[in-house]
Amino acid sequence: MYVSPAYPGRTSDKDVTVDCGYLESVPPNMMLMADKGFNIRTECEAMNISLHVSPGKRGESQMTSSCVSKTKNIANRRILVEQVIRRLKTLRILANELPLTLVTHIDDIAVVCAALSNLKKTNIYKY
Fold first, then answer.
1. Residue 76 Cα distances to 60, 79, 117, 127, angstroms
2. Residue 64 bridge partners (DSSP)
3. Residue 73 host element (H or E)
4. Helix (H), strand (E) at residue 37
């Protein structure tokens, strides 16, 4: 799992993604999945990265069967991502306010917490 450096609370997800260097760590011709409102298509195209976003109905009365299949496929993977995020948030050090004395260590704390959550036994199913 990739762990970006910590950013202030009002930094947008797009700003963090672009600024932290994550897109530079993704090999060309790979695929990223994102929510509909996460507009990084231009940045991904510049890095030769494929961006997959759940299709929407956009005025149609019903989704096509290919859109339903694609949405189901993406949703199954998003469930896995949400489970990993939930595991990370269960670590109490990240669930509470951080004392000012530890602010300079927040990046290291986040990396250690991510490593610990990866070592936890889970009931996550692979699709």
1. 24, 5, 21, 7
2. none
3. helix 65-89
4. none
